[in-house]
Amino acid sequence: MPGALIQIVNEQDEPIGQAIKQEAWRQGLITRIVRVIAINADGKILLQKRSSRLPLYPNCWSESISGHVDVGETYLAAAKRELSEELGINHVELQEIDYFRSSGNFEGLKLERFSKVYKFIFPEKHFKLQKSEVAQVHWFDVPTIRIMMAQHPEDFVIDFHRVVDSIL
Question: Model pTM?
Protein backbone atom coordinates (compact mmCIF):
# COMPACT_ATOMS: atom_id res chain seq x y z
CA MET A 1 0.00 0.00 0.00
CA PRO A 2 1.78 3.19 -1.17
CA GLY A 3 0.36 5.47 1.53
CA ALA A 4 1.02 3.17 4.49
CA LEU A 5 3.15 4.66 7.24
CA ILE A 6 6.39 2.79 7.76
CA GLN A 7 8.63 2.78 10.82
CA ILE A 8 11.57 5.19 10.82
CA VAL A 9 14.47 4.29 13.13
CA ASN A 10 17.80 5.71 14.28
CA GLU A 11 21.28 4.18 13.84
CA GLN A 12 20.57 1.82 16.76
CA ASP A 13 17.37 0.55 15.09
CA GLU A 14 15.19 2.31 17.67
CA PRO A 15 11.87 3.75 16.47
CA ILE A 16 11.96 7.55 16.16
CA GLY A 17 9.14 8.36 13.73
CA GLN A 18 7.07 7.44 10.74
CA ALA A 19 6.81 8.34 7.07
CA ILE A 20 5.40 7.07 3.81
CA LYS A 21 7.91 4.99 1.82
CA GLN A 22 8.53 7.54 -0.92
CA GLU A 23 9.31 10.29 1.60
CA ALA A 24 11.67 8.01 3.54
CA TRP A 25 13.49 7.14 0.30
CA ARG A 26 13.75 10.79 -0.82
CA GLN A 27 15.12 11.92 2.54
CA GLY A 28 17.35 8.92 3.17
CA LEU A 29 15.58 8.04 6.43
CA ILE A 30 16.44 4.69 7.98
CA THR A 31 13.67 2.12 7.63
CA ARG A 32 13.13 -1.51 8.58
CA ILE A 33 12.83 -4.28 5.97
CA VAL A 34 11.84 -7.92 6.25
CA ARG A 35 13.00 -10.55 3.79
CA VAL A 36 11.67 -14.11 3.82
CA ILE A 37 13.04 -17.15 2.01
CA ALA A 38 10.84 -20.17 1.32
CA ILE A 39 12.75 -23.44 0.95
CA ASN A 40 11.11 -26.57 -0.45
CA ALA A 41 11.78 -30.22 0.39
CA ASP A 42 14.41 -30.40 -2.39
CA GLY A 43 16.35 -27.48 -0.88
CA LYS A 44 15.34 -25.10 -3.65
CA ILE A 45 14.58 -21.47 -2.91
CA LEU A 46 11.47 -19.67 -4.08
CA LEU A 47 12.38 -16.35 -5.71
CA GLN A 48 9.92 -13.74 -6.84
CA LYS A 49 10.25 -11.49 -9.85
CA ARG A 50 8.97 -8.11 -8.80
CA SER A 51 6.18 -6.42 -10.71
CA SER A 52 7.07 -3.86 -13.37
CA ARG A 53 4.78 -1.42 -11.52
CA LEU A 54 6.86 -1.29 -8.34
CA PRO A 55 8.85 1.91 -7.70
CA LEU A 56 11.97 0.07 -6.50
CA TYR A 57 13.69 -2.62 -8.55
CA PRO A 58 10.85 -3.38 -10.99
CA ASN A 59 11.26 -6.66 -12.90
CA CYS A 60 14.11 -7.75 -10.60
CA TRP A 61 14.45 -11.03 -8.74
CA SER A 62 14.26 -10.91 -4.96
CA GLU A 63 13.60 -13.08 -1.95
CA SER A 64 10.38 -15.09 -1.71
CA ILE A 65 8.82 -12.01 -0.12
CA SER A 66 10.05 -8.72 1.24
CA GLY A 67 8.61 -5.50 2.56
CA HIS A 68 8.79 -2.61 4.97
CA VAL A 69 7.88 -2.78 8.63
CA ASP A 70 4.84 -0.60 9.30
CA VAL A 71 4.57 1.77 12.26
CA GLY A 72 4.11 -0.12 15.54
CA GLU A 73 4.83 -3.48 13.93
CA THR A 74 7.60 -5.91 14.88
CA TYR A 75 9.89 -7.41 12.26
CA LEU A 76 8.26 -10.82 12.76
CA ALA A 77 4.72 -9.45 12.46
CA ALA A 78 5.71 -7.63 9.26
CA ALA A 79 7.25 -10.81 7.83
CA LYS A 80 4.06 -12.76 8.51
CA ARG A 81 1.87 -9.97 7.08
CA GLU A 82 3.95 -9.72 3.90
CA LEU A 83 3.98 -13.50 3.50
CA SER A 84 0.19 -13.54 3.71
CA GLU A 85 -0.22 -10.56 1.35
CA GLU A 86 2.30 -11.52 -1.34
CA LEU A 87 1.96 -15.32 -1.42
CA GLY A 88 -1.20 -16.06 0.56
CA ILE A 89 0.78 -18.18 3.02
CA ASN A 90 -0.19 -18.26 6.69
CA HIS A 91 0.64 -20.23 9.81
CA VAL A 92 4.27 -21.12 9.10
CA GLU A 93 7.17 -21.11 11.53
CA LEU A 94 9.70 -18.44 10.56
CA GLN A 95 13.32 -18.75 11.64
CA GLU A 96 15.45 -15.59 11.78
CA ILE A 97 18.73 -16.20 9.95
CA ASP A 98 20.27 -12.75 9.51
CA TYR A 99 20.10 -9.11 10.58
CA PHE A 100 22.07 -6.32 8.95
CA ARG A 101 22.28 -2.60 8.16
CA SER A 102 22.76 -1.43 4.58
CA SER A 103 22.80 1.68 2.44
CA GLY A 104 22.19 2.05 -1.26
CA ASN A 105 20.73 4.16 -4.04
CA PHE A 106 18.16 3.49 -6.70
CA GLU A 107 17.43 6.10 -9.35
CA GLY A 108 18.23 8.98 -7.01
CA LEU A 109 16.48 7.52 -3.97
CA LYS A 110 18.49 6.85 -0.80
CA LEU A 111 17.84 3.42 0.70
CA GLU A 112 18.92 3.31 4.32
CA ARG A 113 17.67 0.22 6.10
CA PHE A 114 17.94 -2.47 8.69
CA SER A 115 16.95 -5.90 7.39
CA LYS A 116 15.90 -9.05 9.18
CA VAL A 117 15.97 -12.20 7.10
CA TYR A 118 13.77 -15.20 7.87
CA LYS A 119 13.41 -18.61 6.31
CA PHE A 120 10.87 -21.39 6.46
CA ILE A 121 10.36 -24.82 4.96
CA PHE A 122 7.48 -24.70 2.52
CA PRO A 123 5.85 -28.13 2.31
CA GLU A 124 2.99 -27.04 0.05
CA LYS A 125 2.95 -26.60 -3.70
CA HIS A 126 0.33 -23.86 -3.97
CA PHE A 127 0.29 -20.18 -3.13
CA LYS A 128 -1.65 -17.13 -4.22
CA LEU A 129 0.40 -14.33 -5.78
CA GLN A 130 -0.31 -10.67 -5.10
CA LYS A 131 -0.39 -9.62 -8.77
CA SER A 132 0.20 -5.92 -7.98
CA GLU A 133 3.63 -6.71 -6.52
CA VAL A 134 4.68 -10.15 -7.77
CA ALA A 135 5.07 -10.81 -11.50
CA GLN A 136 6.12 -14.46 -11.10
CA VAL A 137 7.83 -16.92 -8.80
CA HIS A 138 10.22 -19.76 -9.52
CA TRP A 139 12.11 -22.40 -7.52
CA PHE A 140 15.92 -22.26 -7.96
CA ASP A 141 18.81 -24.13 -6.39
CA VAL A 142 21.54 -22.00 -4.79
CA PRO A 143 24.23 -22.77 -7.43
CA THR A 144 21.87 -21.59 -10.18
CA ILE A 145 21.07 -18.41 -8.23
CA ARG A 146 24.78 -17.69 -7.81
CA ILE A 147 25.37 -18.14 -11.56
CA MET A 148 22.44 -15.83 -12.35
CA MET A 149 23.76 -13.19 -9.93
CA ALA A 150 27.28 -13.40 -11.37
CA GLN A 151 26.08 -13.10 -14.95
CA HIS A 152 23.37 -10.46 -14.39
CA PRO A 153 23.72 -8.70 -11.02
CA GLU A 154 21.44 -5.91 -12.27
CA ASP A 155 18.55 -8.41 -12.33
CA PHE A 156 18.51 -8.63 -8.51
CA VAL A 157 17.42 -6.30 -5.73
CA ILE A 158 19.94 -4.53 -3.52
CA ASP A 159 21.51 -6.73 -0.82
CA PHE A 160 20.23 -9.97 -2.36
CA HIS A 161 23.76 -11.43 -2.33
CA ARG A 162 23.79 -11.00 1.46
CA VAL A 163 20.49 -12.86 1.77
CA VAL A 164 21.75 -15.79 -0.32
CA ASP A 165 24.91 -15.95 1.82
CA SER A 166 22.81 -16.06 5.01
CA ILE A 167 20.96 -19.17 3.81
CA LEU A 168 24.11 -21.30 3.76
Answer: 0.92
